[in-house]
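Private note to self, pasted from the team thread so I don't lose it. Backbone tokens:
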């Protein structure tokens, strides 16, 4: 029997091992042909397609005033980004846009403006934006606007009878397109231009008409808020009923309004108040006080027995205080441009009505 040397036996043992090692190392020279060959049996690999569709950016809606901003935010929820230009509580008659504000308007998918020149220093900017193709929604295009003559008539007793505040005055017909026919003066973009009272937001039913029209405008830019529109309008009708009940405690001889400027015309018209006069006899708080008007206002207060002078942003406080001293009335400031912390238009309306009731109910 042939005997193997120790070196030979060692080689016979090591050689198969080297072959195995070489084979294992050699297998790394080429990639596996399938995912399964390179994966343990317990792992299942899939090759489902990845959705690379870009999520569309939310539309940007630029709103001029905080009141309208609250309404628009309630309508769109998180469907759009809402940018309010005029800071909450500031007077829109006197506010001036910055370069950043102008840029925001020009880049907006939709601009919601009050209209009827409320935003006095935005008029040129808005007209230029519309001319460049920016969609601009003017809220007051969709209401029955009061004008200066309407305010003058409101000083008479006849204007505040039951007929003026019946269902006919605030039905669907009152806020329809019919009210803005050929008689209305319009500019090239089809909206009313400085032909009426812009302070419509003190009447919730006027705002309801705006909400209905704005819902259609939002749909045109791909923002469907039809379900929210119905809810918002229902809520506005509800708060109107609450305010009517709240005001019912005031007798006619206390429903007398002396204001800083002509800002409560819609409130007076809708809820049956008499406008005695204003410190600034204008739809704009930026207008001037005149000695003639103050003399007439002092006389009117004396004749009617009005007990409160309601001031607001833009009212010259020294003039209001002097008039109050001369007539024995009280000065009460109203937050006619300030949305409460909850950012709800409903809360704004209730606060306004409550402040008016409290002031006119108080005994001197």
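Design output:
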């Amino acid at each position: 029997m042939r005997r193997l040397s120790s070196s030979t036996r060692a080689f016979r043992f090591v050689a198969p091992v080297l072959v195995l090692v070489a084979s294992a190392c050699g297998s790394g020279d080429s990639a596996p042909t399938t995912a399964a060959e390179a994966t343990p049996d317990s792992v299942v690999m899939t090759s489902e397609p990845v959705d690379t569709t870009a999520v569309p950016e939310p539309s940007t809606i630029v709103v001029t005033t905080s009141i309208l901003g609250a309404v628009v935010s309630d309508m769109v929820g998180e469907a759009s980004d809402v940018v309010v230009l005029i800071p909450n509580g500031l007077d829109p008659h006197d506010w001036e846009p910055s370069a950043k504000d102008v840029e925001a308007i020009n880049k907006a998918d939709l601009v919601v403006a009050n209209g009827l020149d409320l935003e006095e220093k935005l008029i040129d900017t808005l007209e230029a934006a519309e001319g460049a193709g920016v969609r601009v929604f003017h809220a007051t295009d969709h209401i029955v606007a009061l004008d200066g003559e309407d305010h003058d008539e409101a000083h008479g007793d006849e204007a505040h009878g039951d007929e003026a505040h019946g269902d006919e005055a605030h039905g669907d017909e009152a806020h329809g397109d019919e009210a803005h026919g050929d008689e209305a003066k319009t500019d090239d973009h089809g909206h009313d231009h400085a032909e009426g009272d812009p302070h419509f937001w003190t009447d919730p039913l006027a705002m309801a008409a705006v909400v209905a029209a704005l819902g259609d405008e939002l749909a045109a830019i791909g923002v469907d808020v039809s379900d929210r529109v119905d809810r918002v309008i229902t809520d506005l009708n509800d708060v109107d009923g609450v305010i009517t009940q709240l005001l019912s405690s005031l007798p006619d001889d206390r429903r007398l309004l002396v204001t800083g400027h002509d800002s409560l015309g819609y409130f007076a018209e809708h809820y049956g108040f008499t406008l005695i006069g204003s410190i600034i006899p204008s739809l704009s708080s930026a207008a001037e006080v005149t000695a003639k008007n103050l003399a007439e206002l002092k006389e009117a207060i004396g004749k009617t027995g009005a007990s409160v002078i309601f001031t607001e942003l833009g009212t010259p406080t020294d003039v209001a205080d002097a008039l109050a001293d001369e007539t024995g009335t009280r000065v009460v400031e109203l937050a006619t441009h300030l949305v409460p912390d909850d950012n709800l238009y409903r809360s704004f309306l209730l606060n306004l009505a409550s402040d008016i009731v409290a002031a006119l109910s108080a005994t001197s």
